Amino acid sequence: MPDLLPLDGLRVLELGHIIAGPSAGLLLADLGADVVKVERPGEGDQSRGMPAGNSANFHFLNRNKRSIAIDLKGSSEGRELYLRLVKSSDIVIDNFAYGAVEGLGLGYDVLAKTNPGIIYLALKGFLPGPYEARPFLDELAQMSAGLAYMTGPKGQPMRAGASIVDVGAAAYGVIAVLAALQQRARTGVGQKITSGLFETTVFWVGQWLASFAATGEPSVPMPEIRQGTRMGWGVYQLFTAADGEQVFIGITSNGHWERFCKEFALDDLLADESLDDNAKRVAARGWLPRRIGEEMLRYPSAALAERLERARVPFAPLRRPDQLVDDPHLNASRQFVDTPLPSGKTAKLPKLPVHSTAFELGLRRPAPTLGEHTREVLLEYGLTKDEIDALASRRVIA
Predict the structure, then answer these.
(1) For residue 1, what pLDDT is reported?
(2) Known catalytic residues?
(3) Which one of 287, 304, 338, 390 has the largest count of C-beta atoms within 10 Å of its C-beta?
């Protein structure tokens, strides 16, 4: 792994917990920034102590970071120390509740006076507006912005099977931060960026807003629209193999259709002029998927995958997340980071989903213990050993 990553030299302070803030910090840390988690002494990031295996998520989202423990809530000295760190930093991440840091006198306006070049990323429930003070969470965003409605059957709204809104808002926020760094290089001045969970979800359902604008018809949940027709394709759905496993097949071009029919010796379907383009195959949805389904039942899922790959037809086996650790592609492409957990076990956790010819992503340091780097970081930011000892003795830091 090269010594220099793209964001090497950038200093980031992360006031983040659970998923959204740590996700933003992870993106920057994996790309080389020095991300320092500023945590509350004795407790730290709330996800450190979550039950039922959820605490392992801390070790996924907080790799390649350092941790310092400062009492910001109960100590004016702690807040003064934090401002001292801000003075030498490039980016601050804040995903605490609306008004929390402002109530401590540590909001963007105060930080910008200390360091006019600071880029402040606020990950909040909402962008500025009438809703901005509401407490808000990932699942609430999915409910209120139409995503859960579109995902579940009619009358049974369903959240996505991962905290996609938290991670998505973090990703969009980091994109804006990288743009702000470019702007700061020209102007020398930082800025505040707010990324909203609600607005992130609204952006994702934009395709359905566009559909409504074009048709005037109310949105219909995805499960109510048959697979295939909901995306405008004649053959675009799950099929069951002989071993009971399911495989999704997506035929989205005439080339796919021709190769599919030849691979499975479906000569009658290939010769049928009423199926020779996608619009006709959509019109045949009343019987065509059933006929294809009967053919797919003849093959075990592994044989189906082999044939579909040979025919260069889009397909995907249905998988649980835990099955991915054995995926040959992910392992061959080294897309997992072997990550130590407190239990002594090692977890295969995913890298960022990007590849570069110039640098390699990986694990430079495991997720930190609470306050593990307090002294180390404060020395780097210019405090003396005596100052650090004095702050520790007054329990300003831990």
Answers:
(1) 47
(2) 166
(3) 304
